[in-house]
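Suppose a colleague, Dr. K., hands you the sequence of a protein chain of 106 amino acids and asks what its three-dimensional shape might be. Before reaching for any lab equipment, you can write down a predicted structure in token form. Begin with the sequence itself:
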Amino acid sequence: MNRLLIIILISSFLFFSCKENITTKKLEKPYTLKVLHKNNGYGYAIYGNGRLQIKQEFIPGIAGNQFFKTQDQAQKIGELVISKITNGEDPTVFREDLIHAQIDFK
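The predicted structure, expressed as tokens, is then:
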């Protein structure tokens, strides 16, 4: 019985200590956004710990290669992607995200 109690205590300790490390690592990765200016419009780049993670030259989530029309639009979607990453969500941008953010596209 004592052996079972010791195993449970050790397992609990390992579980919670690993869980804490995962959370800590997630918080140690600050993301930064850089808006890219192209000849015909804008895109964005996302950096994590100073390293390029995502380079999005065109509006994601739609067919074709369309640039963002304004710097604000590129920044708005870049910030959305960072928010999704920070919250542990899939960073994919969908057409609905673009409509909700009032991004101009064809």
